[in-house]
Amino acid sequence: MNQNYKPFQLSLLLFLILTPSYLFSQSVSGLVMDTETKETIPFATVQIGDNFGVITNGEGVFEINTERFSTKDSLSFSFMGYEKQQIALKDFNKKDTILLKQSVNTLDKVYLIDKNLNAETIIDSVKANIAKNYPKTTEKLTAFQRTKHNNNVIDLDFEIKKADFVQKKTLENINAELASFSKLSKNNSSNTYYDSYLNIYKNQENPLKVDLIKGTKLFNRERNTSTDNIQNKALGIIAKKIESKNSFKLRTGILTMNDSVDLKTFFSTKTDTLNLKEKSKSISSLFNQYGFGDGTDFGFITDNNKYTYTIKNAIDYNNEMVYVLSFEPDRGSAKYTGNLYISSNTFAVLKMDYKLAEGEKGKKLNLKFLFGIKYEETEKSVLVIFQNNISNNGYSPKYIKVSNKQYTYFNRSLTFIENNKDRQDRVKLKVDILSEAIVNKENEILLLNTELISENTYENFKQKEVVELETIEQYDPILWESYNIIAPDKAIKEFEY
Question: pLDDT (tens digit, 9 = 90+) per residue, 12-42?
Fold first, then answer.
């Protein structure tokens, strides 16, 4: 052996020789496309092993962490109606393109008729097997959630109507500044992205709990038009001029919202935080509506007498035959149209995509003339992908995406009444707020791991109240390099700051 080798160099050489299978990038990324059309395939499954994987984003791009695997392991790519493909990690090049070939249709309508199967009997079988296919268990889930808010300001106005402790000239200056701010904000829109990596403790009989491992908020603080940011800016203008040593009661209309408010604190710019109680409620609602839970949104299955169904096709998926059914409203109270992908073996719904039918509206509330509040959901679309859950021998959501467009109107007064024992000496501050906007939201959650846990494990976990988010004005892939996430799309990567 060459005597010029130093001990460190020799050790390094032996390591390279003896452990070649582990020397590769800790993550791989790529693009999944149709072999013939060369179109990208959004929401395709990318896995290593039975229960570790991600999906492609809306542009067909994926990123997956591979540090716990060796080059002997393989990535598998699958999508309904396509042949599954496997590629060894050692053969995978960074930012590779994977081409999937459409599978041949193996079942036609003649076969369905011969087996006395039609769309209605398939849906009836789905209903009959819901409890078995989607069991209720106590679980710990690991998930990545991304929420996008696009807020387009139609109208905006802030005005101080009364301020007993502010001089008239000062009040005029504040209102002039608020009017200028409101004018500049009108007809502007912006995007805000919230990314969260979290553990979810789920118990069917008790409130869901969440543990935020990492959270970021991507936005431009100066140009952001979200309701919270605009309100904070307007209140910040007021805060500069506020002088009062006493605390105040806050009222909106006839209701007291808070008994003790410090004006300087209330009108100061708020820290970017996440209320975990609200977060747990929103995720719980997501699971209940789109995971066959209480308050399910799947009326096209549970109230199937209100819909018309048609067998469109039968396709292969992971060596299983899947029925593809379309549905549309048949009665006045039905409001969705879409497609269901149903296992021929278990009659479990493996995938569904649906939207509000033409002319239909989603949730709405109109108290415009009574309380100055109006809300209307004008568009809504949903995609849910289920996976076979080894831990509970059933199915659970793998990916949920809910997109909606909302009209919001708010015209209210905030009245601050000083906490002073002498009623005659109490001072008041009254702020009128008018806000009208179109809000587009995208909420997607990817379930990365499911683990059955005991009731004690659930009970022993104590959820925090509030956590701070890491605010960023430019996407940085290093922030998420050790996590499995939904790959960022072009808009996120090129976010202007």
Answer: 444 444 444 344 457 888 999 999 999 999 9
- Closest alpha carbon to 119 in 355, 332, 340: 340
In whole angstroms, what is the distance from residue 396 CA to residue 102 CA? 26
Domain containing 76 — which CATH number? 2.60.40.1120
- Range of the structural domain that residue 147 is part of: 139-482
pTM of the full predicted structure?
0.87
Q: Nearest Cα to 51, choosing from 397, 394, 450, 396? A: 450
Pair (275, 339) in one structural domain? yes
**Same structural domain, 391 and 304:** yes
Pull the structure tokens for residue 136.
């209720």
Tell me how far apart the alpha carbons of residues 234 and 432 are, in angstroms, rounded to a whole number: 11
Q: How far is CA 200 from CA 124, 139, 284, 452, in A?
A: 32, 8, 10, 12
Query: CA-CA distance, 139 to 310, in Å (whole number)?
Result: 36
Q: Which two tokens mark 225?
A: 């038009």
At which of 73, 100, 127 does a domain end?
A: 100
Establish if 490 belongs to a structural domain. Answer: no
pLDDT (mean) for 301-313: 92
